[in-house]
Amino acid sequence: MTSMFSRSLLRNILAREGFYQKAQVRPLVELASATEGLGTGVSAPAAAPNSRPIYLDFQATTPVDPRVLDAMLPYYLHEFGNAHSRTHAYGWSAEKATEMAREHVARLIHASSPKEIVFTSGATESNNAAIKGVAMFYRSTKKHIVTTTTEHKCVLDSCRHLEREGFEVTYLPVQPDGRISLEKLDSAIRNDTALVSVMAVNNEIGTRQPIAEIGQLCRERKVFFHCDAAQAVGKIPINVEEMKIDLLSISGHKIYGPKGVGALYVRRRPRVRLEPIINGGGQERGLRSGTLPTPLVVGLGAACQVAEQEMERDHAHVVRLSKRLFDGIVERIPHVKLNGSREYGYPGCLNFSFAYVEGESLLMALKTIAVSSGSACTSASLEPSYVLRALGVDEELAHTSIRFGIGRFTTETEIDYAVHMAEKHVQRLRDMSPLWEMVQEGIDLKSIQWTQS
Amino acid sequence: MFSRAGPLVRFIRPRFTRSYDQKVIEHFEKPKNVGTLDRSAPDVGVGLVGAPACGDVMKLAIRVDPSTGKIVESVFKTFGCGSAIASSSFATELIKGKQLDEAARVTNRQIASELKLPPVKLHCSMLAEDAIKAAIADYQRKQGQELAKSAAAASN
Predict the structure, then answer these.
(1) How confident is the model at residue A374 (pLDDT cuts 50, 70, 90)?
(2) What backbone torsions phi and psi does residue A347 show, to the nearest 5 degrees?
(3) In terms of domains, do A58 and A100 share one?
(4) Binary contact (A431, B18; C-beta < 8 A)
(5) How confident is the model at residue B145 (pLDDT cuts 50, 70, 90)?
(6) A19, closest residue in chain B (CA to CA)
(7) Which residue in A154, A218, A349, A377 is the catalytic one?
(8) In the listed set A246, A281, A306, which residue is the last one of a domain according to the structure?
(9) Residue A227 among the catalytic residues
(10) Is B49 strand, coil or helix?
(11) Are residues A40 and A78 in the same domain?
C-alpha cells in the first residue's frame, strides 16, 4: 500500500512537471508556426518564456524511462535491504532483485552467464577497472596496451596512468571515417600485449568500429579485447560471444537508466583475470567491493530489459529521425560537412561542421535546443575536439562542429524545429562572419596571413 | 502531501542557467554595428585579427573624418564565440565618435569589465583591442600614403 501510494505520488509529480511527456518541447514549439516557418525560413516559432529547450543531446545522457523508474521505486522505499545481508528477508529480497538485474544485463549482451556481469558506478569505472585491472594483473609478463586516439577520455586517461606506471601504450590512428584499420591493429599487437581496448560507438561522431573483426583478430593473437560500449549497448545489437569480446563496459544513464550505475562484462571462459581497483568486502566476485546500490542496479537491469524489447522500434525511430535531420540540414544549409561517416555511423549521433560559424556561438544562438559541440566532458575547454582532430578535420572546421543526438523520446516536431533553428542561426552568424564574407568574395582563406597561429 | 511536495519539486527542477553575463547575451543577440566599409576608401581603416584555426577572427573597420580626426563610423564582423561577438560589438560602440588617439587608448580591461568576461574569455577582449589598434594603424598607413601621394603630386 505504502509503495503503491508513493509510487503514484512520484509519478504524478513527475508527470505534472512534464518530465515524461513525449513531446518534450511542450509550448516551446507550436507545431503550426514551426511548419509554417520551415517553408519560408522567415517566421521563427516563438519560444515561450521559461520553457525548457528541446533535448537533442542523447549521447551526453538520457532521461530515465518511466518503466525503469517504476521498477526502481520499491527498492528505495520498503525493499531497502542490503543485497549482501544473508541473515534476513530484507537482504534476500534485495539480492533476488540484483540477481534478476544481472540476468537482464547478461541477456542484452548475450553473455553466457549472469556471473560474468560486475556492477560498477558507471562506464568510467568499468573502463578504469578493465584497463588497469588487466594490465596490473598480467604485468609480470605483459607490458603493452593498444587503444585508439578517439577513445573516451576515461580510456585515454587510464592508459596515460599506466604509461606512468611503466606500461607502453600504442594509440592507433583512425581513418577519416573514424574507423581503425585492422592491418594497423594487427601490426600493433606484440608478444607482450596484454589488452586491446576499442570503443564500439564513438560518443562524438557516432562511428561504429568493426568490433567483430577486432574481436576475431584479438582472439587469434591471444590478446584480451576490451570494448567500451557505453554508446552502443541497447542501441545496436551486441553479442559478446559472436564478437569475441572479453571485457565490455556498460553505462546506465546512456540507456534510459539511472545515473551512477554501470556494469562491466568480464569473460569467464577463457577466463579474464583482473586486479580490482576497489578493495573491500569482496562483493562482485572480489572484482568490485562495496555494497550494491540496489535501486540503481535494478534500474540498470530494467533499462536493459526495456532496451532489449524496444531495440528494433527504437532503432527504426532513430533511423527515420536521423534521415529527416540529415536531409533537412544538408538541403537547407550550404557548406555543411558531416564528421565521421554515415555508412559506419550510429544514426542517433550526427556531428556537423557548419563552416565559417564558430561552434560555441552557434550553441549560444541555439539556446532553445540542448545540443553540444562535442562531448560533455570537454565542452568547458576552448580546444577543438581531439576526436575531430584525430579524424584529420581541419582545425578551422573542428571549431565549427555541433553534435545532434537523437533518442527514444525525440519527436518529428523537435527535429523540424532543430533544422529550422539551425538554418536560421547559421545564416545569421554567417552574415556576421568575416570568413563567410571573404568566401563570398572568392578569397581563399588559406592564402591569408593570419595574425595568430 | 502535494502541498509539501510542491516546493520541493520546484527546488529540484533544473533551472535554465547560462554562464554568460546578460550584457554579453544582449550584444550577441542584437549586435550593434555589424557590417563592412569599403576597404579601398582613403578615410577607412580595416583591422583583421585572429585566425580561423584558433576559433576567433575579428574584422573591425572605421571611417574617420580627416579634418577632425574623429571616428564617425565603426563596424565589425566576427567569427568566434558569443563573448568574441559581444566584445567586438561593444568595441565598435566604444570607439564611435572618439578621436583616434583616444580610441587607441581603449584597453581590453574596459571591454572585459563591461561584459564581465570570465578569465577563459579574456582573450576575446584582447582581440577586440588588437582589432581597434589594427584598424587605426591601417587608416594611418593609408593617410601616410595619401600624404606621400599628394606631396609627390605637388613636387611634379
Answers:
(1) low
(2) -65, -20
(3) no
(4) no
(5) confident
(6) B13
(7) A377
(8) A306
(9) no
(10) strand
(11) no
In a domain, A445, yes or no: no
CB spacing of A399 vs B53 below 8 angstroms: yes
Which one of A306, A323, A358 terminates a domain? A306
Domain boundaries along the sequence of chain B: 19-149
With an 8 Å Cβ cutoff, are B50 and A452 in contact? Answer: yes
Task: State how many domains chain A has.
Answer: 2
Nearest by Cα to A65 from A418, A308, A403: A308
The share of chain A scoring above pLDDT 90, in percent, equals 81
Q: Is residue A204 part of a domain?
A: yes
Write out the H or E segment, with its range, that includes residue B77. Answer: strand B70-79
Judged against a pLDDT cut of 50, whether residue A381 lies above it is answered with: no
- Do A285 and A339 fall within a single domain? no
CATH 3.90.1010.10 is the classification of domain B19-149: yes
What single letter denotes the amino acid at residue B141? R
Residue A314 is placed in which grid cell?
527504437
Q: Within this chain, do residues A50 and A155 fall inside the same structural domain, yes or no?
A: no
Give the residue-averaged pLDDT of A240-252.
98
| B18, B52, B85 member nearest A435 (Cβ) | B52
Q: Is this prediction's ipTM beyond 0.90? A: no
Q: Mind listing the pLDDT tens digit for each residue in A11-70?
A: 555 555 555 554 444 434 444 344 444 443 334 444 444 578 999 999 999 999 999 999
For residue A232, give its domain range.
Answer: 66-306
CATH number for the domain spanning A21: value is 3.90.1150.10
Which listed residue (B25, B41, B54, B151) is catalytic?
A: B54
Tell if the CB–CB gap between B77 and A434 is shorter than 8 Å: yes
Report CB contact under 8 Å: A450, B9: no
Q: Which residues of B touch A436 (CB under 8 A)?
A: 79
Asked if residue A222 and residue A331 are part of one domain, the reply reads no
How far is A231 from chain B, CA to nearest CA, in Å? 25
Partnered with residue B63 across adjacent β-strands are B44, B73
